[in-house]
Write a structure and sequence with these properties.
Blueprint (H helix, E strand, L loop, with lengths): L8 E2 L5 H26 L4 H29 L11 E2 L15 H25 L3 H15 L1 H12 L2 H33 L1 H11 L2 H26 L10 H18 L9 H26 L4 H24 L1
Parallel strand pairs: 1-2
Helix pairs in contact: 1-2, 1-3, 2-4, 2-5, 3-4, 6-8, 6-9, 6-10, 6-11, 7-8, 7-11, 8-9, 10-11
């Protein structure tokens, strides 16, 4: 049955020629993946891009050795067989799933790729009866096993301590700009802006169901508004703040969660119990915001406390006074 006929072949049913062809296409794919990593990193992480360029060159060398062996044993025609044609064969991530990978995730993925390739060559070597082919596959298995060391050597060559520190700092800054900053803004908006309507409703009606519905509507509405506002405010091209959709998602979700935190206690039928728990939740939310500002945004603790806790207390007081009046 041909590889392209719709059914997947079992690895044990492949001929020695097909095993070599599979190895050739796999090396081509891995080299392409590494070059894709390099291109994505070249602008912001040139030293890591050089590392992946070096790993792609290693894969090219393996492919050339495999092609040379195939030509000497089976001729010029190489059957078309790829990973997706073989049942149980290790798969690579689709390209659209690698778009959001961080620098460290790419390095980890590369290490996993080399270990999978080592396992393939070890198994393939056991399946061949030709001495030279068996030796080649065994050599490639050993080479893949040593690729972690190769990566380390390339890393030593291209990533000095200063370069790694600079790239790690850039990655950390990107994480802050894309996820932490909009998420924190959303959490602050959701936690503080919904205090007045929720507690005004609570003290005005003393009805937990009505208060919960108002809180739910305010939280979801604020989350949708904040998410779209963040996504539309900056496409990230000039500011370097990253994908507008990621920022909008972070801001929208955290805004909604910030409001729901002190709305959910009103699912409790008893008004006094629900209100006490909601106040405790507000206290925890505000101090969580202070901690995040101090931890990630390097805002001095006293300044963050003054801005967040005092501001939240004033909004809470406004809601309580309006609702109680």
């Amino acid at each position: 049955m041909l590889p392209g006929s719709g059914a997947r072949r079992r690895f044990k049913d492949l001929s020695e020629q097909e095993i070599l062809a599979l190895a050739i296409s796999s090396e081509e794919d891995d080299a392409r993946i590494y070059r894709g990593y390099a291109e994505r990193l070249r602008a912001d992480y040139p030293d890591s891009a050089a590392l992946f360029d070096g790993m792609a060159a290693e894969e090219d060398t393996h492919r050339e050795r495999l092609i040379d062996r195939h030509m000497r044993r089976f001729g010029d025609y190489i059957p078309l067989i790829r990973r997706e044609h073989v049942a149980g064969y290790y798969a690579r991530r689709p390209v659209w799933l690698t778009e959001g990978m961080t620098l460290e995730q790419m390095r980890g993925e590369a290490e996993a790729m080399e270990r999978q390739a080592q396992s393939f060559y070890e198994t393939a070597a056991q399946r061949t009866t030709d001495a030279e082919t068996r030796k080649l596959l065994g050599d490639l298995a050993a080479a893949e096993a040593g690729h972690v060391n190769t990566a380390n050597r390339l890393e030593d060559r291209h990533l000095s301590d200063d370069a790694r520190s600079a790239e790690d700092a850039t990655a950390h800054r990107q994480f802050l700009l894309t996820w932490v900053q909009p998420g924190l803004a959303g959490l602050m908006d959701g936690s503080v802006s919904t205090l007045a309507p929720i507690f005004a409703t609570a003290f005005a009606t003393q009805d937990t169901r009505t208060t919960f519905l108002v809180g739910l509507a305010a939280s979801i509405g604020a989350g949708i508004s904040m998410g779209f506002t963040e996504a539309a405010s900056d496409d990230g091209q000039l500011s370097g703040r990253g994908s507008p959709w990621k920022r909008g998602f972070a801001a929208g979700v955290m805004t909604t969660l910030g409001g729901l935190g002190h709305a959910l206690p009103y699912l409790i039928p008893d008004f006094v119990t629900a209100t006490v728990i909601a106040m405790i939740v507000v206290f925890v939310e505000l101090w969580a915001i202070v901690w995040i500002q101090n931890r990630y945004m390097e805002t001095p603790f006293l300044r963050a406390t003054f801005q967040v806790v005092l501001g939240g207390a004033l909004v809470f007081a406004a809601g309580a006074i309006i609702g109680g009046g």
